[in-house]
Amino acid sequence: MGNKHSCCVYTSPSKTRGKPQDVYGYEEPGIDVHLTPNNRSTTSLPGVPHISDRENYPEDVKEDPTSDPSLRPLFPSRSQSEISKNVRHRSRSKNHKNRRKSQYDNRVLQIQNTPVLRKYSSCSTIFIDDSTVSQPNLKNTIKAVAFAIYFHIRNRESDRTLEIFDEKLHPLSRDQVPDDYDRRDPEHKHIYRFVRTLFSAAQLTAECAIVTLVYLERLLHYAEIDIMPANWKRIVLGAILLASKVWDDQAVWNVDYCQILKDIAVEDMNDLERQYLEMLQFNINVGSSVYAKYYFDLRALADANDLSFPLEPLSKDRALKLEAMSNEDGIERINQKPTLVRSSSLDGMTVNPRLSVAIIS
């Protein structure tokens, strides 16, 4: 096989290579076949584009904020109305209280309720936090992602869902699900505790939290469903499961999550992952520009909800540390201890070699 002296090779005096039908006596049928994203690969599912075309979607990417860097994510629009509503409510309640109090009481109340002063950078001092695009702060990133999920649930447009995500049909624990489980919106702290528990047990990174939000919004966009009280836990669990396998550089198995959520079966986790991938059309790619877009929008959401990152003055050591966190070998270089430099003594600097010292007893 493959030898040029094989008996199956047709010899021709022409230098050009013959067509397959000339060599083997085969004639192609008169069917004009055009390769499209649907039939480029015979083993792919119908409607799923080839992997070489994942980067160049003709029309879907233009409408998908999780793949197009020029479009804003979904959660800023869902959170804007809630933030504006809270600001107006606080303003009205404050004005109402001020009208009923005296001038002295208002002054005392103003001093007691003075918000924490925010640190701003100047020409001589720069205040900056330790969170960067390449290595975000884990705790604050999870809180910001929990806020995004919270506003998705609070300001959903409808209650569209699927059976695989229904917590009543597929419970995560043996505890009885309340009767009003599909009508009671979870609070931000409940979402944060659920996500933090999974991230702490699986030892996931902050970048994985951002990719989790990307997969969650991509599911809402592709499957045309809404995240709601009845399905938010399983939707978030599926997004974390995929993000940990795709983004995190470690081997993660579904049985690992079954050890965290002890009452869930491995078959249920496998079915959740399989249907999640099918709804995403196996599009698990997250570009660097999309990742950066979600990172900065999450920071803006955190600032709008008074979730400030810890700010400290920028020193030379912190500047070197932040610079090191931006590349791969930086952390090892920062943690590396300085090596001792060998120096010559005065005796070693003479021209003549030093003789051995004799000890006379």
Automatic annotation (TrEMBL):
<dbReference type="GO" id="GO:0019901">
    <property type="term" value="F:protein kinase binding"/>
</dbReference>
<keyword id="KW-0195">Cyclin</keyword>
<dbReference type="Pfam" id="PF00134">
    <property type="entry name" value="Cyclin_N"/>
</dbReference>
<comment type="similarity">
    <text>Belongs to the cyclin family. Cyclin Y subfamily.</text>
</comment>
<dbReference type="InterPro" id="IPR036915">
    <property type="entry name" value="Cyclin-like_sf"/>
</dbReference>
<feature type="compositionally biased region" description="Polar residues">
    <location>
        <begin position="36"/>
        <end position="45"/>
    </location>
</feature>
<feature type="compositionally biased region" description="Basic residues">
    <location>
        <begin position="86"/>
        <end position="101"/>
    </location>
</feature>
<dbReference type="InterPro" id="IPR013763">
    <property type="entry name" value="Cyclin-like_dom"/>
</dbReference>
<feature type="domain" description="Cyclin-like">
    <location>
        <begin position="193"/>
        <end position="278"/>
    </location>
</feature>
<dbReference type="InterPro" id="IPR012399">
    <property type="entry name" value="Cyclin_Y"/>
</dbReference>
<feature type="region of interest" description="Disordered">
    <location>
        <begin position="1"/>
        <end position="106"/>
    </location>
</feature>
<dbReference type="InterPro" id="IPR006671">
    <property type="entry name" value="Cyclin_N"/>
</dbReference>
<protein>
    <submittedName>
        <fullName>Cyclin-Y-like protein 1 isoform X1</fullName>
    </submittedName>
</protein>
<feature type="compositionally biased region" description="Basic and acidic residues">
    <location>
        <begin position="51"/>
        <end position="65"/>
    </location>
</feature>
